[in-house]
TrEMBL record, chains A, B, C:
It comes from Brevibacillus fluminis. PANTHER family: CONSERVED WITHIN P. AEROPHILUM, PEROXIREDOXIN FAMILY PROTEIN. It holds the Pfam family DrsE_2. This is Sulfide reductase.
């Protein structure tokens, strides 16, 4: 027991840029304090895990529609608030750059470097027709059972 | 201590279909792993607990207005994202059916069968003028004190 | 161990009136049960901490724009749902008054009286150009490290 690391889990449900930034700042902070950290990406939170480029995979019509309507990757997310037809995200990115804050893609990279476990929810992938080739490398694929396994051992569990 | 069950609590504040589905999937998962699970429905989260049919109860004008404006039951909820004037929820329901995923009303029924404690926040009911007759059978009625009593004994506490 | 108080933390990320009310009701409830409670205000959650009146401080153009676009104080927040061009918040405030429920500014005051630790996220303040003079008196100023320090000692940790 003494040697066990603190554990922290985050369910990232939201596809909003600002919420994803908050999730990754908390995750990177916890990892820096040597916590074992899991981010479980479900529903719209999976959008932050999509690759920028379109990946040629076979899909049905509805799945193509979801793929087309949802933002492709961490650079394309909108804001939960003051999105203003896309001006809001650019303002936030601008001030973050000005203050030398890490961008969301950089925060995700840092999380991977720090060993944060990034999980893609397989049930959501099925529903929305997202395939592993379309998501970032280095993810784990799991469902709610694996999330609960981590969460019951963690002290800090957030739903974002 | 050895014999105590793990406890999990969820505050369901949101009235969005996708968030309610996420809450009930986590709750049912935890119940399947033999956790004692509480879902505390507050604010818009109460809408998922409303009966489909209109129930004749005496109300003031403002309470009638709230009752009329808020979605009546788990089948009527919108999405947090890509709602698209109601087309989004139908798309989600369609793909869930296609993948044999349980619908929200089915997830709620399963939760009740598994003994998940479904609580309606009495303060919100007072504010919005919702009466017990208008909500599903088998709910408990309580306030923030009861929620905190459960949450302080639980390891996984989420606000959705 | 025996004498230690229960601890509860809330990250208030949202700038929505209804979510801020929920956060402060839970926080005040927990404080009434003698928990040590921290509310960490980040991103739009900082808007609830702004003073009503404009405070003359030196700012760049972009920071002025943020200051002008974001709601100034707990009385100006919108709703997450049914905002209806500002009619929703007035309806909620009206029913809360009618039922003798505390308003958000009163809930914040009560929290301060009960010793709830209200923290303003310094990183967000930097990004949005908010200065201490513009925020309520009696706040603490800290970052994610301090939040994690509190959260790892708490049983109830919510992200709202």
């Amino acid at each position: 027991m003494e040697n066990q690391k603190e554990k922290t889990t985050i369910v990232l449900f939201s596809g909003d840029l600002d919420k994803a930034i908050a999730a990754y700042i908390i995750a990177n902070g916890a990892a820096a304090y040597d916590h074992e950290v899991t981010i479980f990406h479900t529903f719209w939170g999976l959008n932050a895990m999509r690759k920028d480029a379109q990946v040629p995979v076979k899909k049905g019509l509805l799945e193509k529609a979801f793929g087309w309507m949802m933002p492709r990757g961490a650079n394309k997310l909108g804001l939960s608030n003051m999105n203003m037809l896309g001006m809001g995200p650019e303002m936030i990115k601008h001030v973050m750059k000005k203050h030398n804050a890490l961008s969301l893609p950089q925060l995700i990279e840092l999380a991977q470097e720090q060993g944060v476990k990034l999980v893609a929810c397989t049930m959501t992938m099925d529903l929305l027709g997202l395939q592993q080739e379309e998501l970032l490398d280095g993810l784990e694929y799991a469902g709610v059972a694996a999330y609960l396994g981590d969460a019951t051992q963690a002290k800090v569990n957030l739903f974002i």
